[in-house]
Each structure stands twice: as C-alpha cells, then as structure tokens.
Amino acid sequence: MNIIGTPQRYIQGIGALEQIGTIIKDLGKAPFFVADATVMKIVRPRLEKILKDQGLDAFFEEFQGQCCRSEIGRLARKCQDANCDIAIGLGGGKTIDTTKALKLELGIPLIIVPTIASNDSPTSRIIVVYSDEGVFSEGLFLPFNPEVVLVDTAIIAQAPLRFLVAGIGDALATKFEAEQCYQSGGLNFFKARPCQAALTMADTCYQIIRRNGVLAKKAIEAGLVTEAVEQVVEANILLSGIGFESGGLAAAHALNQGFTLIEETHHTLHGENVAFGLLAQFVLENRDRDFMDEMIMFYKEIGLPCTLAAIGLKEVDEGKLNTIAKHACRKGSYIFNMNVPIDERKVLDAILMADILGH
Length: 359
Description:
The chain is α/β, with parallel strands linked by helices. About 55% of the residues lie in helices and about 10% in strands. It has 2 domains: about 10-160, Rossmann fold, CATH 3.40.50.1970; about 160-359, Dehydroquinate synthase-like - alpha domain (Dehydroquinate synthase-like, alpha domain, Up-down Bundle). The longest helix has 26 residues, at about 195-220. The chain starts with 8 loop residues before the first strand and ends with a helix.
C-alpha cells in the first residue's frame, strides 16, 4: 500500500500572515497563539491588529523553549482554561511541535505559522518530544497533518541566515533518505510504501536547493526576498516536509538522533546535524570521491557543517561516537531503511570517514 500525507492548505508569500484572520474564522472562534518571547515581540502587535480588524479575540501564551511533556501539559491547561478552540503555533520546530501536541491533546484545529525555514516539521503530523534537558525522548503522531500551514516569506527573511541554511541541510537529505527507504523496501511515517509523488517531491526539493540555494543565501544576506528565496523556502518547508514524511528517513536522521545525546551538539541546529549525518550516509552508500568532493564543496559554499568540529565535537572522542553509533543502530531505527548492511562498527567508521573528507 502507498500513502502520502499533506496539510489541507499551504499558503506562502510576502504578507501571507494578513490572511490569518479569515482562516481562523473558517476553523473556529477563539484562537490560542503559542510563540517564544522573541517571536511574540515581533509578531504579536501585527496579529492583534489583524484580529481586531476581523472582530476576533485571542489568547497569547509564551513557549518556554523545550518541546517536553511538562510544557505540553502546561500549555494544554492554559488553552482549556481560556476556552480556545484553535491552536496556532508561531516560530521554529520546537514551538511548532509543542503546538501540534495541543491538537493531539485537545482535538482542536491547528494552524502552523513558521517564522524560520530551518526544518521541515511544519507540514508533518510528527511531534518530536524531548526531555526537559533537551535529549530526544519520543515521537508522537497526529491522526492527520495540520489543517493550515501559513508561511510569510517576509517574516522568514528577517530571521538569521543560519536558520535558512540549516533548513537547506535538513531538506538536502530528503531525496537521499527517501531513495534509500524506497530501494530497501522500507516504510514511511504512514507505515506504508513511499509513493512516486513523494519521491518526485523529494527529488524536486533537492534540485531546487542546488539551483537556488546559494542565490537565496545571497538574497537573505542583502535583506531581499527574491524568487530564489521563495523557492528555497518552499523546498525547505513543503517539499521536504511531504518528502520526508511520505518518503521515509534513513541514516542521516538516525544519526541526528544520536547526536542529540551528546551535550556538545545541543547548540547545533537540527538541520546542521542532519547535514553532517547525510555525509556519513553517503559513506555508507559508498558514493564515489567525485560526488563527495562536489557535495562538500556545496556544503562549504552554503555554510553547512562538514566536520565533527563544526557540529560541536571539537575533539574526536571515540566513546561519544560509539554512543552515537549505538543509538543510531538501536532496534526500529531509521538507519535500517538503508539499502546496505548496517552495524555499529560500519556506522562509526562512516562518521569518522565523513569527518576526514570534510576536512
């Protein structure tokens, strides 16, 4: 069986946020907005004006920084106490995943408004939950994808460039992980086979990034929203989001989960870890030297990490790398969607070889 999952509606463009009042009215009456302190300061005044013009009242609550069980419970109680009937998450991956959990807990409609394009979580039904200390804990799943994903590229362009680049790292892996999953007979996040539409989206995501990535970076550095920026944002959020969830994951994301166990990588963004994990995946696939050299050249041009030091592991500690490899090879890991034999020793050697090539 083949399954693909998508949000009911995806809206992207400069000024897209202005549509939120009309969208809210289609789904309910009392929105509950979740954003961290920085995003709240930037977006709340604009939202209050939009909502006032639409005759809507809203409740705003600051996200405390970690998508963990305690924060999910706190926000769910706040939402219930305010009698809100729509959850709206504004911000990055952890804010978005925490807001998704409100839909899971309370059964209310969900609107996602990413303010950065640093990863592909906005369109998916997956909720990545961490411990209070920031270590990966569990994955939860909504029954269906978010009702609406609203992407205002003018807001995205105001965020630090590092976030867009990290999103490129996350999205780059989509094509190669989906291909491995398909070739190995693996399953996607709907416990089904990847369909051709998902594989095509994953490949298109890669092609857009390679064609427009550097141009988008230069535009953001200049404070511009060009067509290259629009296309890369769509690749990072929509194409990668549908591509990974409906196409499946493999070694790059399995290694990312291992990296979260190491304290030194806690300041590294998800997409940065995935990008280095992808280089290790290429080693496991035995990609030729010309391919690796060309890919690493692109990493350096765009600003993605291609060494262990660049993701926080300044010293090569084999004990820590063993911890990463062991976690990546645990039962049920995405790494077994690879179309090559996998064991902890091979994974450790792939990490070390990726680091050598990156230097």
